[in-house]
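Minutes, structural biology subgroup

Action item carried over from last meeting: produce the structure token record for Periplasmic septal ring factor with murein hydrolase activity EnvC/YibP (Christiangramia flava JLT2011). EB confirmed the sequence was re-checked against the source entry. Recorded below for completeness.
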Amino acid sequence: MGASVFAQSGREELEKRRIELQNEIRRINELRVSNQKKRQSVLGQVEDLNQQIQSTENLIKVTNQQANLLTREINTNTNKIAKLRKDLEELKDDYAKMIRRSYKSKSQQSRIMFLLSSQSFLQAYKRLQYMKQYSNYRHQQGEEIKANTMELQQLNSQLVQQKEQKEALIAENRKTRAQLEINRKSQQDLMATIKQKEGQFASQIRQKQQAIDEIDRAIERMVRESIAKANKESGSSERDTYELTPAARALAADFANNKGKLPWPVRSGTVSMRFGKHPHPVVKSAMVNSNGVRIDTEEGGKARAVFNGTVSEVQAVKGANKAVMLRHGDYITIYNNLDEVFVKRGQQVTTGQDIGTIATSKSTGKTTLHFLLFKNTEKMDPASWIYKM
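Output recorded by EB:
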């Protein structure tokens, strides 16, 4: 029973992830088509294509996992069916022998003589009980044969469905792999163009990085000022570290205990820029840096709180719309590039609560959340805290 429940849970989780990836690929593809009509730069096209290829590879991986899980279930059910058939044959054989014995001694006179030939009242009573038990056992075996027959029919039906599902997944994977090869060919063609003008594209990346750095510096200032303001309100002169009350200390400990298990700050999305300094995913000679992560999501997508906390700040950030800062003891989460905000300073929020609508860029068509995580003024990698980021 436990194994069955676990398998069911695994199937549901894989199917949910498969649908998410299909929607993600569809969204990226629609964005690519739209941007091609706008004559998007080659660099932007490759970035979009890289995301689609990554999502497609993940989809193939998940589909393979589903097919493998179905293979294991098919093998398990095949073995069950074989054993059940053997048990059923033995039951039927035993039942047939019992019926034949019962038929030979079925006359009422034989039963009466069996009772009257008892040497004592106690023996007659025991013989009567034996006759009742024999009759009950016949009925029980009949019911068991019926139940086993029904189970066998259900398993056979389930086996047919599982084989059909597996064939459908394999067919889907063939189509997905074919599309993946087409995208990889397009990627190679675009990369050849980029190689020819690598210096020009590296310059574009550096300009874009300067804008990101300016946004990150503005957020760092907001964090420092917010900490200093909170401490001043509580009578402390400390500027870079929160003065914690017992309740705030407990909240911080709870936040820390959930490291690696926090929910995503969007309902569905793809990380388009990771934390820290690293080579650009397309032009390797150019370096990029981010104090947080950037997550592309669907148009109109909402940012949501990853943990219980209090709204510390709601501010406009030049070049990145609005930012909401949530405090969780001495931990801070920041949700930047919001077009509309649903919360206000001092408000208590709960895990999963929507805090604003993420803005969509008019130039790229992308809906991107800038998500950052701090402990006091120390920058932290959100991927270490968010579940499977």
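Discussion: Residues 121-196 form the longest helix (76 residues).
Next step: EB to file the record with the rest of the batch.
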